[in-house]
UniProtKB/TrEMBL annotation:
Keyword Secreted in record: no
Pfam families given in the database record: COPIIcoated_ERV (PF07970), ERGIC_N (PF13850)
Protein name, UniProt field: Endoplasmic reticulum vesicle transporter protein
Membrane topology, from the record: Multi-pass membrane protein
UniProt keywords, alphabetically: Membrane, Transmembrane, Transmembrane helix
Region (Disordered): 1-22
TM annotation in the entry: 50-69, 352-373
């Protein structure tokens, strides 16, 4: 008896030893089998079928890897909506280095179209002197020039007395002069209050430039902030800066912007002015015009309300008339405008269930197509 006949005989003997209830249940389940089996004796294998199997297996592996990469990656969805957050504040984060203007000559001011102004901002601002090599020096003296140091005695206001008010600090004396509309550059250099407020320069390394960094919170309306030479004041409803006319040609606005952003950091979204350099070959007023787009970034764990912006820049030469008036102010100006639209960015991951469904579809689809091709090739070979 050949081996195949022996196997069939053994299977019949095993079936005869089964109990009747078990055989009955097995028969019922066999009727529900949607996938009838074909004995090995009736299977025909061909060379073309081997090629189809190898190619389909490679294709399955490639598609599986592709789906796995898609499952592990993040998909971004973006859309534009109307901005309803105009009541919020706008946070400005900046780090700007001016290489030719010392910290005691630089003033940070901001204003907006609602009429609000802040001159000589020092809150949440740090100034660090830079040397000839543009390296930080005198870190211990940062921002000391902007602080008020009160005296126990009543200091003179030098002709700008307001209701017998004492001017014990440089800030008080400067404010008294500003209320009169007088220039302050003289008292900044010669008034005892201002001279004693300055740190001991004998222990300082001579400063050539200034690195200014910090955070500003402004109304969410169009406006500007700037870092400019001189001390800011409001004279006849005009924003002006006072400094000695002989100093103006030393105010070169060559600068480096290490960081400029509006709001919190958005992953995967660089800021156009980060690590930006500008070299001024002459005395200029350099303007950055920013178009700010409110942005909401959402991922699986959090939501960030921030802003993106686009920018273009313009330099205007500073010229002085015969009467000592200048056409524009030497400094770096950031003029921003806020759009009424909001850019929504959503990061989404493929779910595990979706991934499994796609894998099953890939494997099943490739297997079905391979079976169809194999059948076609087999019957064509028989013809």
């Amino acid at each position: 008896m050949d081996p195949v006949s022996e196997i069939r005989q053994r299977r019949r003997e095993e079936d005869d030893t089964e109990t009747v209830p078990k055989r009955s249940l097995t028969k019922r389940l066999e009727k529900l089998d949607f996938y009838p089996k074909i004995g090995d004796d009736y299977v025909i294998k061909t060379e073309s079928g081997g090629y189809v199997s190898v190619i389909s297996s490679i294709l399955m592996i490639i598609l599986f890897i592709s789906e796995l990469i898609s499952f592990m990656s993040v998909r971004r969805e973006e859309r534009i909506t109307i901005d309803h957050t105009l009541s919020e504040k706008l946070q400005i984060n900046f780090n700007v280095s001016l290489f030719e203007i010392p910290c005691d000559k630089a003033s940070i001011d901001l204003m907006d179209i609602s009429g609000q102004q802040q001159m000589g901002v020092i809150s949440r601002i740090v100034k660090i002197d830079l040397d000839e090599a543009n390296k930080p020096v005198n870190a211990a003296f940062s921002s000391v020039l902007e602080e008020d140091k009160l005296d126990k005695n009543c200091g003179s206001c030098f002709g700008a007395d307001v209701s017998n008010k004492c001017c014990n600090s440089c800030s008080e004396l400067r404010n008294a002069y500003l209320k009169r509309g007088w220039d302050t550059w003289f008292i900044d250099y010669y008034a005892p209050q201002c001279r004693k407020d300055q740190p001991d320069r004998s222990s300082r390394v001579p400063a050539k430039g200034c690195m200014v960094w910090g955070v500003l919170e402004v109304n969410k309306v169009s406006g500007n902030f700037h870092i400019a030479a001189g001390h800011a004041q409001n004279r006849d409803s005009r924003h002006v800066h006072s400094f000695s006319p002989s100093q103006i040609f030393s105010f070169n606005v060559t600068h480096h912007i290490e960081k400029l952003s509006f709001g919190d950091f958005i992953p995967g979204t660089p800021n156009p002015l980060d690590s930006h350099d500008m070299v001024a070959a002459e005395l200029v007023s350099h303007n950055y015009y920013l178009k700010i787009v409110p942005t909401v970034y959402t991922n699986a764990t959090s939501q960030v309300l921030s802003n993106q912006y686009s920018v273009y820049e313009v330099s205007r030469p500073v010229q002085m008339s015969a009467f000592g008036q200048i056409t524009s102010l030497p400094g770096v100006f950031f003029v921003y405008d806020i759009t009424p639209f909001m850019h929504s960015i959503s990061e989404r991951h493929m779910s595990l269930a979706h991934f499994l469904v796609r894998i099953c579809a890939v494997i099943g689809g490739v297997a079905a197509i391979a079976k169809l091709l194999d059948t076609i090739m087999y019957y064509r070979a028989k013809v």
